[in-house]
What does this fold into?
Amino acid sequence: MSDKLPDQNNSEEVDLGQLFTLIGNAFNRLFSFIASIFKAIFSVLILTLKAVIVNFKIIVITMIIAGVLGYALDKYKPNLYSSIMLVKPYFDSKYQLVNTIDYYNALLESEEYNTLSKVFSLEEEEVKEIANFEINPGPETENEKIVQYNNFLKSVDSVYASEITFDDFVENRSIYSGELFEIKVYSFKKDIFQKLEDGLGGSFTNVYSEKKMKKRDSLISIQKENILQQLREVASLQDVYINVLEEESKSSPTEISIGGEGLAFSKDKTQTKEFELLNTEIKLRNELKALDEKKVEEDVFFDVIASFQQVGSRDIKWYQMYMLIFPMLAFVLLCFVYLTNRLVRFVKQYEA
It folds into this structure.
């Protein structure tokens, strides 16, 4: 048995040695692989810089020519102007507004300028200067978003509400979620925007909104009649209590007592009820006032928060500027030509 122990120990040492050797080889291959990646990236970078340096003059001259050509085209192309109108729709007329803006864009795409000229009461030549209509949600504060989020949580099941975060709610809202809407118009004529306001005003009116407005007015009339009836009843009760107080003042004078705290007058329950009637009358009149204010504030289908500017501002983005786009395209084209040339030379020189 003592003879077998040394052999067993030797075999275990050999197995451990082989294991460590395998682990070491694995790490070496991993480090070599990572080093080869960095070497390849470095080689590509150096070859790219070499190609740019060798062909620097050609690249600079080509991009300058492309930039000058783009600048000339920018000077001759018509300028695009834009202006924004901020509106607040009522009676769910926002749905009609969004659909109508899409309809106007469809008319522009199909070149139905005659129809648009009737809508906006403009000459057909002026309508042709309109490039596009755009509608977006209006500006909102974080507090307004939080209020909408809380209202949303109250309207859905508690289990489902626990899965919707505030960021998810804000990100997945539709265009109809807000109360303000931003109508943006693009045109090649800079002073046409205010002429479009009257036509856009008709975008809010539809049968549904008109019915909703009439229903609101009918409900307000019913509520006002109920409040007026309650006020008449309160006035009648006030007359009754006044008569009761007059009779009590004639039959029994007010008792006055002198104590440690000074003069004290006896209190009657009818005085308390009269005070409650007065509070009730004030509350009813405030409700009546609120109904009148609501009808005055929302007596139209929309309010214009901010009108179009008399002269639109020039609307141009960097990717619409030829003097920037042409040099970039020229550089990409040079790179394509260079790579194609290198590929052709490699294929010709390749030997299997």
Residues 267-272 have pLDDT under 50 and may be disordered.
